[in-house]
Amino acid sequence: MNALRLDRFQVSEIEIENTLEALQNEVGGYIEVVMLSDKAAMIVNEEGLLLGLSPNVIASAAAGTLIVGNALIVGVDGEDFTDVPSDIINRIKKKLPEGSISKI
């Protein structure tokens, strides 16, 4: 599945398995889903505040609320996670300096 990884310092387009284990590995623990729109969601560490994870300015700006630790943006189709929509990628690219999103 194509996703955007937002860590504290950069945004990367990544390919990730669409499994709970892979998502938990990316955010470092149990996942919580923050809906961004009807077709995109941000996956964050559910216990990030309790664990004292550092604020993620990039993810917080995208979500409009405080996000700590690493985050992923993925697409949503009903209850399933899917590839992040290209219009979401383009919207985030417009908010960042040119060349800020790397492909991994």
Structure description:
With 104 residues, the chain is an alpha+beta fold. 24% of the residues lie in helices and 33% in strands. The protein contains three helices and seven strands. The protein has helices at residues 20-27, 57-63, 86-95, and strands at residues 2-6, 11-15, 31-35, 40-45, 71-77, 80-82, 101-103. Strands 1, 2, 3, 4, 5, 6 and 7 form a seven-stranded mixed beta sheet that branches. A hairpin with a 4-residue loop joins β3 and β4. The mean pLDDT is 90.
- Shape, per Cα inertia axes: globular
Q: Spell out the helices and strands N to C.
A: EEHEEHEEHE
Q: Tell me the total number of β-strands.
A: 7
The structural class is alpha+beta
Describe the biggest sheet? 7 strands, mixed
Q: Average pLDDT, to the nearest integer? A: 90
Percent range of helical residues: 10-25%
The N- and C-terminal alpha carbons lie at a distance of: 13 Å
- Number of helical regions: 3
Percentage of β-strand residues:
25-35%
Radius of gyration: 12 Å
Q: Give start-end ranges of low-pLDDT stretches.
A: none
In short:
The protein is an alpha+beta fold. It has helices spanning 20-27, 57-63, 86-95, and strands at 2-6, 11-15, 31-35, 40-45, 71-77, 80-82, 101-103.
Topology record:
Blueprint: E1 2-6, E2 11-15, H1 20-27, E3 31-35, E4 40-45, H2 57-63, E5 71-77, E6 80-82, H3 86-95, E7 101-103
Parallel strand pairs: 2-7
Antiparallel strand pairs: 1-2, 1-5, 3-4, 4-5, 5-6
